[in-house]
Amino acid sequence: MNELALDYPVYRSCLYVPGHHVDRITRAYESEVDAVILDLEDGVPVRHKARARDIVADITARPTAKPTFVRLNSMRSTLCTQDVLAVAGVGLAGVRLAKAEQPDDIRQVAALLRERNSAAAIHVLIETASGLENAYRLATAAPSVRMLGLGESDLRADLHAEMEGATMDAARSRMIIASRAAGLPNPLQSVFPDPRNLEGLELTSVHGKALGYIGRMAIHPAQIPIIHRVFTPQPHEIAEAMEICAVAAVAEDTDQSIVMDGNGKMVGPPAIANARQTLRLASALDLVGSVQP
């Protein structure tokens, strides 16, 4: 992926891997996933927490084969501070703070990263009703916050809601609205919990893309091809986005905010914003050069 084409990296897929499973970590880096998330939180039993931290710290102490993030234990635990200080090496692209609820949680993590002279990004995981209510405040709590994420399983339990019902869709939409209001990229969709149900993964991913998500988290390498198929911009989408951006350039030169494209279709600021996001993702995947507008 060509991250230099963007002011922020864009990923279609991120694969969660328990930090205490060395063999699964190795397979994650060998997979087609765009980025790896080494898990120190729910994926690691309490008795293995210290060992997982040591394994992950050794990995992030040096450059990694893929962008590498670490899911931290929550600030309410006694483990988060130790997690951050241990994993903040040169190979760390970012941390994902579990169960964030208050802006001070974010600021404490940001301060710990500064203490280690780390430029790692912070991804904020919202997994409770309280965190959801504070989504915008969490997104703007520190300059190093680069993405919001939804922990759907925990949130669903807190809300007593159906996973694929209107309440969870409202929470998913809230993530996108808060992200964009804070000037952050659209988020990645939460994991699909059943790695054997690939049809369900595809259906919910298509729905997530329609809501505004630009990629998805995974828990098994078998999920990656479907996630990539759904979230990779298609040639016709890229071509249309390129045409819209070209028309937008003409509009700017002629001091117009709304113009017509070659098919007589009105092109205004909303269409231009969507087209630019498509091209940002396509550029990150080195797809733009293969498409003619």
Protein model, in words:
This protein has 293 residues and is α/β, with parallel strands linked by helices. The strands form 2 sheets. Strands 6-5-4-3-2-1-7 form a 7-stranded parallel sheet. It has helices at residues 22-30, 49-60, 80-87, 103-115, 129-133, 135-139, 152-159, 166-181, 198-211, 224-231, 235-253, 269-284; strands at 13-18, 35-39, 68-72, 94-97, 121-126, 145-150, 216-218, 259-260, 266-267. It is 45% helix and 13% strand. Helix 2 links the parallel strand 2 (35-39) and strand 3 (68-72). It has 12 helices and 9 strands. It has 2 domains: 3-231, TIM Barrel (Alpha-Beta Barrel); 235-290, no CATH class.
Categorize the overall geometry.
globular
| CATH topology descriptor of the largest domain | TIM Barrel
What is the overall pLDDT average?
90
CATH superfamily of the largest domain: Phosphoenolpyruvate-binding domains
Using the coordinates above, name the CATH class of the largest domain. Answer: Alpha Beta
How far apart are the first and last residues' alpha carbons, in Å?
A: 22 Å
Which structural category do the helix and sheet elements fall into?
Answer: alpha/beta
- The domain count comes to 2
- Known CATH architecture of the largest domain: Alpha-Beta Barrel
Order of strands across the widest beta sheet?
Answer: 6-5-4-3-2-1-7
What is the ordering of alpha helices and beta strands? EHEHEHEHEHHEHHHEHHEEH
**What is the number of strand segments?**
9
The proportion of residues in beta strands is: 5-15%
Query: Could you estimate the helical fraction of the residues in percent?
Result: 40-55%
DSSP helix count? 12
Which regions have little confidence, pLDDT < 50, spanning 5+ residues?
A: 1-6
Largest sheet: 7 strands, parallel
